[in-house]
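Protein record
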Amino acid sequence: MVRRLRTAGFVVFGKTNTPEFGTTAVTESVLNGACRNPWNTERTPGGSSGGAAAHVAAGVLPLAHATDGGGSIRIPASCCGLFGLKPTRGRVSGAPNGEGALPLSQSGPIAWTVRDAAAFLDVVTGYEPGDLTPVAPPERPFLEEADIAPGRLRVAVTVDPPAAQPVDAACADAAHGAATLLDELGHDVVEATPPWRDEGLFERFGVLWRIGPALYGVPPEQLEPLNRELAHAACATTALEYVGAILSLQRYARRVCAFWDDVDVVLTPTLAKPPVPVGWGFEPTDPWEQFRRGAEFSPFTAIANLTGQPAASVPFTLHDGLPVGVQLIARAGEEATLIRLASQIEQARPWARKRPPVAA
């Protein structure tokens, strides 16, 4: 990241808190302790980029770099009342690291405003030699897109997640409220759900997710219980099982992406729950129950990592004093659509003036 920041006058401020290897939807670890939400310090800022979001929400930084392999930009953005954008797969190079057979993680911004996030994306976007999934350069700088009206878009709204998980009424209401706003702004809004419901999805996604903790060369006995179990499971996974999961998920992604032939954007709740209490994710002693709690908290986010599409969490409302965001998903390569639409929502429902109690 430092090499790419050289032309924009950016300064790397510091390294913020994350969970061990970024594998959970909350930011808590034995090494660094619990990261807390500036809106309510008894609640999580989300994860895995929770430290980045907490710093921005508290006013320490105007924006922060984050990464998103299953929602790790959008989850903390929603929890902390910020705008977070996961770019299209390949929009931001992962160099010098390898990408893997089905790259899940992308780098992107968490920011107070859409314009700040767009400017950040302009700095970090681009191809590097050896990238497996290059994306065509944008038509114009993303910062300029923030000042362009989105036009009349076809928007599908759904509160039905890809995996069968209950959705809190506050989160569903936020999505429906955003749909009403978009209708009032002149967009064509319909209730429709992509063909993404698949009861085996969580298990196949888990085959890919377990690989991470096993690749860092840390002895399993030095890892926290969840990552220890993931690493053990990875070592027991055969090459055939791993490749089979990838091929199955690629077929699944093709089916899901075809839904965007008829719409421009899909609108969902970002999360299935408002920010959960600190410690909630690790209440179960069984590491696999801890793993499942992540899916219970954020069943809407990982789909865009599997399909490679750009997705953003947009702040929309407060519930019991806690931020609740909505998610926008566009076609691959169409970050500009998300930036234009999010900027329109920002102007209609400005959130940048709202500061959490810790930052007041």
